[in-house]
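Example 573.
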Amino acid sequence: MRWSRSLIPTLKEVPAEAEAKSHVLMLRGGLIRKLGSGVYSYLPAGFRVIRKISAIVREEMDRAGAAEVLLPALWPAEVLEESGRMEVFGADVIRFRDRHNRQGVLAPTHEEVITALVRDNVTSYKQLPLTLYQIQTKFRDEVRPRFGVLRTREFVMKDAYSFDAGPDGLKKSYEAMYGAYCRIFDRCGLDYVVVEAESGAMGGSRSQEFMVRSDIGDDKYVQCPSCGHAANVEKAAIGAGPGEKSVEGDGEPGGGPGEVSTPGARTIDEVAACLDTEPNRMIKTLLYVADGRPVAALVRGDHDVNENKLARVVGADELVPGDADMIENVTGAPVGFAGPVGLSGVDIIADRSVMQVTDAVTGANKADTHLTGVEPARDFRPEKIGDIRAAVDSDPCPRCNQPMGLHHGIEVGHVFQLGTKYSGRLGAEFLDESGRRRPYIMGCYGIGINRIAAAAVETFADEHGMVWPPGIAPHQVAVLCLNTAKPALADASQRVYEQLLADGLDVLLDDRDARPGSKFKDADLLGFPVKVIVGRGYEKNGMFEVQVRKSGEQKDVAEDELAGEIHNIIERL
Ligand SMILES: [Zn+2]
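Predicted structure in complex with zinc ion:
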């Protein structure tokens, strides 16, 4: 590709609306342009990155035995209504009415359509296992699209679905996809962490996410530096070891809790300020309805309830926060003054850390009143004590009890064992060896194609611009002709450009009539792994200067050694 024939509109200024590094650099490098909120055009350099990522994904999915399909993005609304997921996705689904006044949606994901397709076209166990995938655009009406192409309303996803006759088959299909994902992210040059995850809106049993650590990432995970265990915060178990420190008050152990007036102080911070105490000495009481029964969850004031864990400890299928009426009924007080002491008619579930607090503060189940001097072991009796809170930094690892780190990450991939959630609901069955009808055991597997690009920029960029891993760079090599008005330089540039292309390298020839300084700046901004400079060195002694973007390393190379040298550099990167 010649720069003069492409469209790479680089910008000197930092665009005002961009916050994230990848957003700034992809705009400045002319990779993307914004059309509307959360909607972007990919220009030639940006789309080359997307195509390269897609090609790697395709190769590895094919190698893992998956077959590619292309499913529609435009659906009749019934598809999501029948599966019950219209409610799950809620306002995230983009809806419209067609000319016949029929309700339609733009697909946010494809479980329903693929399950129905297999239901209607596969009949026997002999046709299994089957894994189908596609690379296609999805739509979600994000509340707050942001960070450029990291959180958008329209994005390209690779989604795959496996169909097996039994759990062993699912395990094998899942492992094949897991292996393919590792190869994909390795070939894209990403540093990634695989974390245990909740299956969320998708349901199912096992689920893991592929995360790229980044401060701007929307997802949080904990990772143990000692044994390597990593889990999404929605899932992360907390070790019961010595990391769970007790919090001791400074009050004298007296005869029992005492009432104090805390007018209008409802939140933890308000109460802590009012009573001059710390949130970690307070016991927060949150009321839920678990499968129709009231439940009071206790966590320390500086902690948050993890509803997934709470539901598991309670053994509930459905867990919803109690509303104001329910809270008043159960506690006899307005919202904000609930506490476990004297609370009856409700199961009390305490987080382990609550039981380590002494001389605690909690609501008195009475308007504008709290209790101080509460001793958990003496003053109330929980039905269950367990791990029901969200992990925080330095919490002990559930495997080895060493303190774990809490990090932000960009989720680039996700693998789920779905089981029969969709096949059961949609009547997708096959005939087994003995002629019985059984539902397919399914898995589903997603990769965010655009996010891989943004995550790579976030991870590797430096003060001069993007630094692409060679596998997904817009071009591997940029040949910079420093003066196109000099025929000797223009001819030599053209010659090496053609040689390198013929040698299988992906080359961009900067043949613009521009100053050398801006060619260097633009090449660094675009982050091509290797630059070949055709300038003074060539005029002097016929040598080409080769520069490596990542390390800054440079050397003079003769024309006949150029291709070999560049292949070696790329190999090493
Ligand atoms: Zn550990």
